Amino acid sequence: MYEFIKGTVDFVGPEYIVIENNGIGYQIMTPNPFAFTKEAGKEICIFTYHYVREDLIALYGFKNREEKALFTRLLNVSGIGPKGALAILASGEPGQVVQAIENEDESFLVKFPGVGKKTARQMILDLKGKLHDLVPDYFPNLFNSDEVAATISQSTEFDEAVLALKALGYSEKEIRKITPELKKEKLTTDQYIKKALQKLLK
Prior knowledge:
Elements: E1 4-12, E2 16-21, E3 24-29, E4 43-53, E5 56-62, H1 65-75, H2 82-89, H3 94-102, H4 106-109, H5 117-127, H6 154-167, H7 172-182, H8 189-200
Parallel strand pairs: 3-5
Antiparallel strand pairs: 1-2, 1-4, 2-3, 4-5
Helix pairs in contact: 1-2, 6-8, 7-8
């Protein structure tokens, strides 16, 4: 229904961003909302997917069409809903996901929240050999971000990252395991999320 929305980034939270366009604020769920922190107050173009179900109507947003296409293909896999597809994309390394599917690496796929052995096997059956068009050069740099200009305390940045990880489906127990390593560095929220996901997927 909506291919994309151009507007100003009005709000960034752990689960979604708000894009203001002509006086209307669109709540858009994204894989890693804090990747948009540096664009707060700026006009951006975000590619959207309008999800409609009996008990849910929502907008999901992505930085490019390739990311959106991978999201829609993941939705076609039995056992994967929007939240699970977002968690997979939030890793920042979709290329690894594609490679795992092509190599039938179930042990990698089950590390994502909500993905068990049955779902991992279904991903491989449904998507193997069908994702080669979704691995352009953009994948390695999907969520690289510059240092956020505004100086925010480390605790606030870290707490925001924890909220985002919980929103993706990771448990407090899983997050606590990697907390000591994460707190060794002062990072932006987006960088904390990316580093946390890399550790959770090891």
